[in-house]
Write a structure and sequence with these properties.
This protein is α/β, with parallel strands linked by helices. It has five helices and seven strands, in the order αβαβαββαβαββ. The chain binds S-adenosylmethionine.
Length: 204
């Protein structure tokens, strides 16, 4: 199968997750929670032969992802869904991830979503989730009054985490990799300082 260059995803931390999924003996089935947007990271897993599924709560992001699928003839199976109540049965997936998506919610809703991720994962299945760090310098503005995060998620702004704070969500897991990523980059003429904490964990 040949893919055009724009399908190389920019969500680079997911390559490490993919590498670990490829080494797992479990079936190649993956769910993305917060899967919408114009360049869905699920395309990476699709290219590696995975059966992919995604859920997305915001209509505009869902439409963009579905246009991507139609344009590139990729059946990524991205549907409407809320990770606070994942519309799949328990232990359905070998692999589940949520990339740059969970922090749009309030901390109580993040806790609910993490329990949902654990529920739909098979035993020995792997998950990847990244959280915004309190050291991130770019994400402290309150959400726009009319934006989807406020209306759909009742959230006032991004949730930020201290270095060990999100560990508590991984009680049902063994954490196999945890990395705090501090990134300084030039973006459209601005110098950005970003920080997130990412986890790869195996369900017990
Ligand atoms: C910044 S975008 C990232 C999209 C995609 N993961 C990517 O990396 O390109 C975050 C997405 O998560 C979605 N999202 C946030 N909370 C959600 C929830 N509870 N259920 C499903 N989707 C959610 C948002 O609507 C948004 O489209």
């Amino acid at each position: 199968m040949k893919f055009p260059v724009e399908e190389i995803i920019w969500a680079t931390p997911l390559y490490e997750f993919l590498r670990r999924c490829n080494a797992s003996p479990l079936a190649k089935e993956v769910l993305d929670c917060g899967a919408g947007g114009s360049n869905p990271p699920l395309s990476l897993f699709y290219q590696y032969g995975y059966k992919t599924f995604g859920i997305e709560i915001a209509e505009e992001a869902l439409t963009k992802a579905q246009s991507f699928c139609a344009k590139n003839d990729m059946a990524l199976n991205i549907i409407y869904g809320d990770m606070r109540n994942i519309p799949f049965p328990s232990e359905r997936f070998s692999f589940v991830y949520s990339y740059n998506a969970i922090d749009f919610m309030t901390k109580p809703d993040i806790a609910i979503s993490m329990r949902e991720i654990a529920r739909v994962l098979k035993s020995n299945g792997l998950c990847y989730v990244n959280f915004l760090s309190v050291d991130d310098a770019e994400s402290w503005e309150p959400f726009c009054e009319t934006g989807p995060a406020k209306s759909l998620l009742k959230s006032e702004g991004f949730a930020h985490f201290e270095d060990y704070e999100a560990d508590e969500y991984f009680e049902a897991f063994e954490i196999v990799r945890k990395e705090k990523r501090l990134v300084e980059k030039l973006w459209e003429g601005r110098r950005l300082k970003q920080a997130d904490i990412e986890y790869i964990a195996r369900k017990r």
